[in-house]
């Protein structure tokens, strides 16, 4: 098989870097071509609604990035910036309006939400075929059952594509997911299981994490603990996907993004590694666009089959 065009071998004999930014650009281009084809066949221009509650500066940057990339893919974006004081009932009312809006094919509610709002209740209110984050019970169930008509959470989907650039067939590999959130760790573990890996999921209560990590051929880290994973934890030649993003202040008063991996250490031991920035982050956004395209296709199909089309799909799939 031809080597992936997204691998950047190290000039100093360290880990080969997986170029998530280049992969995301290529995927976004493919999505934009598919969107143009869909629209040429008479479908509405796919629209993505992003809802942000409160004013977390980091979230605002991601939300702006998403809007820019959405336009690059030939889709429409609808931003809803709500104040921190928004009630759960008000947010639920907005979700109902977006569920019924024919211009909106994808809905994403940015996490975390303020403490007075239950994220599970809100994500479950999104119509399953518009749930481009894949976090509701229906899409979570579809993923767990290996059904093809589901929407898979964007970050784990992007991580899987980055892993496939290294090795298309992961059968029998030992995979470790560090972090067990609904957003990243849990769906990541499901995807690796589907790839026939032997999967371990670690979290704050895990004992002997360094020892467990040294057994892993594939490590996906999503904890939000900057530089948690040290070089001594890594099996030589392993593939390491760094999901973490933390903005750390620098002595000069500026800030820089760091991952959950101690990059200079791990770079010396790993076989393949994703950088931060330029690794998982851009792939998350490209996969969000891919899911919005998929959502638009699901809704076009449901439209042909009548109002209950999507529900019927689910029933017949089981
Ligand atoms: N690049 C991208 O596209 C994205 C990046 N992120 C980043 O990824 C990171 C994780 O995000 P998210 O999953 O939402 O975070 P959460 O805080 O929701 O989850 C973190 C998980 O890591 C576990 N954990 C925390 N500390 C440790 C530790 N010392 N050892 C082992 N496990 C630990 C927690 O365990 P427990 O459950 O027991 O508390 C929890 O399961 C953040 O930096 C976030 O910014 C997130 C989404 C997308
Ligand atoms: N419902 C929900 N779904 C999410 O997918 C979700 C979320 N909530 N809450 C926050 C996290 C975080 N997240 C990122 C997306 C893109 C970059 C990204 O583009 N990163 C660039 C750099 C960006 C920069 O410079 O700040 C990079 O890593 O190269 C990062 C992080 C999605 N998240
Ligand atoms: Mg450390």
Automatic annotation (TrEMBL):
Enzyme Commission number(s) of this protein: 1.5.1.5, 3.5.4.9
Record PROSITE patterns: THF_DHG_CYH_1 (PS00766), THF_DHG_CYH_2 (PS00767)
Superkingdom of the source species: Bacteria
GO BP term, pick one: methionine biosynthetic process
The Tetrahydrofolate dehydrogenase/cyclohydrolase catalytic domain, residue ranges: 18-133
Coiled coil: none
Keywords on record: Amino-acid biosynthesis, Histidine biosynthesis, Hydrolase, Methionine biosynthesis, Multifunctional enzyme, NADP, One-carbon metabolism, Oxidoreductase, Purine biosynthesis
Known catalytic reactions: (6R)-5,10-methenyltetrahydrofolate + H2O = (6R)-10-formyltetrahydrofolate + H(+); (6R)-5,10-methylene-5,6,7,8-tetrahydrofolate + NADP(+) = (6R)-5,10-methenyltetrahydrofolate + NADPH
Domain Tetrahydrofolate dehydrogenase/cyclohydrolase NAD(P)-binding: 153-299
Binding site for NADP(+): 179-181, 245
GO MF, one example: methylenetetrahydrofolate dehydrogenase (NADP+) activity
GO CC annotation: cytosol
The keyword Translocase appears for this protein: no
Pathway: One-carbon metabolism; tetrahydrofolate interconversion
Tagged with keyword Nucleotidyltransferase: no
Family matches, as NCBIfam families: PRK14186.1 (NF010783), PRK14188.1 (NF010785)
Subunit annotation: Homodimer.
Role of this protein: Catalyzes the oxidation of 5,10-methylenetetrahydrofolate to 5,10-methenyltetrahydrofolate and then the hydrolysis of 5,10-methenyltetrahydrofolate to 10-formyltetrahydrofolate.
Family: Belongs to the tetrahydrofolate dehydrogenase/cyclohydrolase family.
Name this polypeptide is given: Bifunctional protein FolD
Source organism of the structure: Oecophyllibacter saccharovorans
